[in-house]
Amino acid sequence: MIEIRGVTKRFGSFTAVDNLSLSVRAGEFLTLLGPSGCGKTTLLRLLAGFEMPDEGVILLDGQDVSHLPPYRRSVNQVFQSYALFPHLSVRDNVGFGLRMQNVPAPEAAARVAEALEMVSLREQADRLPHQLSGGQRQRVALARAIVCRPKVLLLDEPLSALDAKLRHNMQLELKHLQRRLGLTFVFVTHDQEEALTMSDRIAIIHRGRIEQLGAAGEIYHRPRTPFAADFIGQANLLQVAVVGRNGTTARVRVGGGLELTVASAELPAGARTALVSIRPEKICISKQRLDTENLFEATIEEEIFQGATDQLRLVTTQGTRLHALVANESAMQEAFHEGDRVYCGLHLDDLVIVQAE
Ligand SMILES: Nc1ncnc2c1ncn2[C@@H]1O[C@H](COP(=O)(O)OP(=O)(O)O)[C@@H](O)[C@H]1O
Ligand SMILES: [Mg+2]
Q1: Which numbered atom of ligand 1 lies nearest the CA of 156?
Q2: 36-90: per-residue pLDDT in tens?
Q3: Closest listed residue to residue 141, CA positions, set 190, 208, 79
Q4: Fold identical between 2-226 and 234-356?
Q5: Which CATH superfamily is domain 2-226 in?
Q6: Would you tell me which of 80, 88, 150, 283 could form a disulfide with 92, CB atoms 3.0–4.6 Å apart?
């Protein structure tokens, strides 16, 4: 549906998008995820035609649109900052595009009603923009873009002004709608949870380049760079020395002496040092000795209550510090407290090498 080939965009001497290539499949929900300033908005503006690339080409549906103006591209964009027609009601703002397309009035009314329902603004349909909150105006902008059902919808942090609960509902609604109508979404966010909740695939953007591209689960479970591991979710990043190989596994040593077994497929031949990423929730903790590979003992230095989970700060007998996350499920389960000595286990597959030399 979209093909970006070697696109570079500079502002003066600053390179905002750096020789970036990316294909977006028809009907997929692709998210551009990255910290503020990494070039996400610039990339969307290049797709929409509000910026022209200095190098590279952009194809939409096989057509080279690199130098076509926005109105000649079949994409629709919801911006981070949105403009509504101040003199039109919410309903008329949302229906505006359909009137321009000469959609018959009964169909237009039904689609507007559906879009307003989706963004929970049915009761505000007759209000004017100045009578709405920031979050409500953002939802109007979203409804206005969705109602036209463009082939590709570009969404630049469209949920950023919403409070947590509404934001979560809208994430699910938007995902549902995208699936049901088979629309192609390119969605921008700096919020990793939002990206994991909504996306088929995620492109992690760092300094104008794609750091990693993959299915949401793949990005989470198999981050391929320290930046990706750290940006998505929480990660314990440990510098290790490779001390031996044995067929399908390898032994690595963390400073202080803690030794762990990793899958040797993770380590390139000849690597002597590496950076291992361990997700906090993958560390299995028990007061009883566990029957597992990568068993070690630790003391709980600090316990932080987080509602559904407890964040534990561990220090192993070798002095390695680790963050762990345990579910706060029921009173039937073991409870952990500061000062407890515990056994920790780690499955081979949960040790991910994100860098090796
Ligand atoms: N029109 C512009 N002129 C100069 N610099 C710009 C312009 N637009 C964006 N930039 C710079 O390019 C970088 C990427 O910006 P942007 O794409 O908005 O990042 P993001 O959306 O990921 O936060 C930033 O450092 C920003 O200051
Ligand atoms: Mg932006």
Answers
A1: 21
A2: 999 999 999 999 999 999 999 999 988 999 999 888 887 766 665 567 899 999 9
A3: 79
A4: no
A5: P-loop containing nucleotide triphosphate hydrolases (3.40.50.300)
A6: 88
Phi, psi of 97 (to 5 degrees): -65, -35
Query: Where along the chain do its domains lie?
Result: 2-226, 234-356
**CA distances (Å), origin 174, targets 150, 196, 198, 284:** 14, 14, 8, 35
The answer to whether residues 98 and 112 touch, using CB atoms and an 8 Å cutoff, is: yes
* pTM attached to this predicted model: 0.88
Alpha carbon distance 24, 29 (integer Å): 9
Q: Which of 13, 40, 42, 204 to mutate to test the pocket of ligand 1 (most atoms within 8 A of CB)?
A: 42
Question: Which of 201, 204, 256, 241 has its CA nearest to residue 353?
Answer: 241
Residue 16 CA to ligand 1 center (angstroms) comes to 6
**How far does residue 17's CA lie from ligand 2's centre (Å)?**
13
Integer distance in angstroms from the first to the last C-alpha of the chain?
38
Instruction: Quote the tokens at residue 316.
Output: 């192993």
With contact defined as beta carbons under 8 Å apart, do 261 and 243 qualify? no
Distance 205 CA to ligand 1 centre (A): 13
The class (CATH top level) of 234-356 is mainly beta
Angle at 218 between CA 8 and CA 251, to 5 degrees: 110
Ligand 1 atom closest to Cα of residue 205: 22
- Beta strands 184-189 and 29-33: pairing type? parallel
Å from CA of 79 to ligand 1 middle: 14
